Amino acid sequence: MVFAVFGAVPALASPNHVAAQGCVGNPVTVQILGSGGPRINPDRASASYLLWIDAQAKLLLDTGGGAYLRFGQSRARLADLSLVAISHLHPDHVSDLPAILWTSTALREAPLPIVGPSGTEGMTDFQTFLNRLFGAEQGAFQVLRSTLGAPPAPASGGGVRLEVSVADARKTEATTVFDKDGLTVTALGIPHGPFPTLAYRVQTRGVSIVFSSDQTGTNPRFIDFARGANVLIMHMAIAAGTKSPLHASPAVVGRVAQEAGVGRLILSHIGLFDLDAAVAEVKQAYTGPLTVGADLQCTPVQ
Length: 302
Ligand SMILES: [Zn+2]
Ligand SMILES: [Zn+2]
Fold this sequence. Notes:
Layout: H1 15-19, E1 28-34, E2 48-53, E3 56-61, H2 67-74, E4 83-85, H3 91-94, H4 97-101, E5 112-117, H5 126-134, E6 162-167, E7 175-180, E8 183-192, E9 195-204, E10 207-211, H6 220-226, E11 231-235, H7 250-260, E12 265-268, H8 275-285, E13 290-292, E14 298-300
Parallel strand pairs: 3-4, 4-5, 5-6, 10-11, 11-12, 12-13
Antiparallel strand pairs: 1-2, 1-14, 2-3, 7-8, 8-9, 9-10
Helix pairs in contact: 6-7, 7-8
The structure holds zinc ion (2 copies).
């Protein structure tokens, strides 16, 4: 059975309508801010997710294009976040980070913990990425220099100070990247062509959520990493019957979720292709509860 928990919210829904959606009525809820991939899409922002605990959004995972608008529509508060976790440095996962941070000192006083991946040839590590964005001397957005600890630019709202950590995406074992505020977050490097990419597993309130990010689905350790999660978000980036050196086919997405024995699979990072055919291919291997992701959709984790 395929269904969307609480359904999708129309792209132009008013913020008040969105606030009434029900992300805050459960102990733990995952909300999709962006359910699309990199291609321009009339209905889906690029990858971004929130984890709500009680009435607060505590985790922001990825900040792809459109996350800035969707974050506002979700009624999440920057001041409530315990952690921002970035899976990898493709623009469809991180390009709205400067927009979200700009003038954020007006919204939050406490430093904001943020974690991202190590680098490789052709893709910098997360700290270098932030230095090139926000560095006081050479940064593209020097006006956000305060995010890295420099004095704020004159006459600038600046950006909230970031507490940056970098997780090694090449390690074969999972790494604990955050353990505070009732949230335990571990990260595991997953294969996404040559690009260092992190999947995250969050444990809180006796439940677990795994965010897979982009991957080929060829690392068997990911199945152990995701095993028994209450909710697993997998990225269905390519059409049924196709292959990619960067992305798992729908058939592989279904097989991974089935082998991991998860409580619910949410499909996200959905491109402009025949969705019914792709979901049918997933269901050939995966027989459990399934949700097709949509922007601003909320799914209770239980
Ligand atoms: Zn992507
Ligand atoms: Zn990617």
